[in-house]
Design a protein that fits this description.
The radius of gyration is 21 Å and the shape is globular. Helix content is 27%, strand content 21%. The chain is of the alpha/beta class. Helix 3 crosses helix 4, helix 4 packs across helix 9 and helix 9 runs antiparallel to helix 10. Strand 17, helix 8 and strand 18 form a beta-alpha-beta unit. The two termini are 28 Å apart. The protein is built from ten helices and 18 strands. It folds into two domains: 196 residues, L-asparaginase, N-terminal domain (Rossmann fold); 116 residues, Rossmann fold (3-Layer(aba) Sandwich), CATH 3.40.50.40. The longest helix has 14 residues. The structure holds aspartic acid. The site of aspartic acid (ASP) has 10 residues, from loops.
Length: 343
């Protein structure tokens, strides 16, 4: 039987780091191919090729590198049965969400993984995570996922919530796609392999602002956002999208931004929350002023989706339509649970 062909794309993170001898702080190794020993045992099950994208701490990740990674996958797409991306966990949910918009309509899996202990250190979780990610890349899955420990998580639903070596990510608003055990369990709602026409759209506009509302928030900060010519604004508001209205200053500022052609997205600060702009007066007034709801998207999925939308259009009604459309499983499907997702 033909061994599946998997390509491992390397983007850095602790998995490829070494300790600085002087400071003890972790930093990217100068020669990662020495560190990534592609384990001989895995080659029995698949043909694994290696491609270097960057070797950085993922806090230095940027939309330019998302585009570089998406372009590399697009170029190699037909040659492989699946892809694994080794990446730092700190911003993995952003990169993986961004890629789910840049590479839509997948026929095969793209699996992100990383580790909290460098691969060349004793007790590293990296070896297991890489093995599990490579195995996942051979499975009947056709979407971008994160595999750390034994959970397979839809990438644009994932949030980093822990520094434990077992469970780094969870998926507060969507059930796991599967679990790696004996046997490997895959849930019916995952997207399955079948021939689909890949949509490659790797443009992002990162000129946005994200502001967290807090008691005492000065709404005039929004004027600074306008002054710095941001192309979009996300307000992380209270509860299900509630904003202060008593002093009558936030809503007029939202209106001002929208009049200036800047889309305003209302997100929420809840861990497992859904933005519902008709639940309270504050959210309702924001909606009437033209703000757009983030619905049940994670903040990582919302930020990268707005950047992706702005990479394609500056027209607010078009941005609103994109934000409200399920592009890659990042937002609630009203039919979820009624029938299995096979699309
Ligand atoms: N600081 C690291 C990074 O995100 C953490 C990790 O790899 O898990 O690159």
């Amino acid at each position: 039987m033909r061994r599946p062909k998997i390509c491992l794309l390397f983007c850095g993170g602790t998995i490829g780091m070494v300790k600085n001898a002087k400071t003890g702080a972790m930093q990217p190794a100068s020669n990662v191919s020495e560190i990534i020993q592609i384990f001989p045992e895995i080659q029995k099950y698949m043909q694994l090729d290696f491609k270097m994208i960057v070797n950085i701490d993922s806090s230095d990740m940027s939309p330019q590198i998302w585009t570089k990674l998406a372009t590399a996958i697009h170029q190699l797409y037909d040659k492989y049965d699946g892809f694994v991306v080794a990446h730092g966990t700190d911003t993995m949910a952003y990169t993986a969400s961004a890629l789910s918009y840049a590479l839509q309509n997948l026929s095969k899996p793209i699996v992100f993984t990383g580790s909290l202990i460098p691969l060349n250190e004793i007790g590293s979780d990296g070896r297991n995570n890489l093995t599990y990610a490579c195995l996942t890349a051979t499975q009947d899955i056709a979407e971008i996922c994160i595999v750390i420990g034994n959970r397979i998580i839809r990438a644009n639903r994932a949030k980093k919530y822990h520094e434990s070596i077992v469970a780094v990510f969870h998926s507060p608003n969507f059930p796991y796609l599967g679990e790696l055990g004996r046997p490997i369990m895959l849930n019916e709602w995952r997207k399955k392999r079948r021939k689909r026409a890949l949509k490659f759209a790797p443009k992002f506009d990162s000129n946005i602002s994200v502001l967290k509302i807090f008691p005492g928030f000065d709404p005039y900060i929004i004027e600074n956002v306008l002054r710095r010519n941001a192309h979009g604004l996300i307000l992380e508001s209270f509860g299900p999208g509630n904003v202060p209205i008593q002093d009558n200053s936030l809503i007029p500022n939202i209106e001002k931004a929208i009049k200036a052609g800047i889309p305003v997205i209302i997100a929420n600060q809840m861990e497992k929350g859904v933005t519902n702009l008709t639940a309270y007066q504050g959210g309702y007034q924001a909606l009437k002023a033209g703000a757009i709801s983030s619905r049940d998207m994670t903040i990582e999925a919302t930020v990268t989706k707005l950047m992706w939308a702005l990479g394609h259009t500056r027209k607010i009604p078009e941005i609103a339509k994109i934000m409200d459309t399920d592009l890659a499983g990042e937002i609630a499907d009203p039919n979820f649970g009624k029938a299995n997702q096979t699309a």
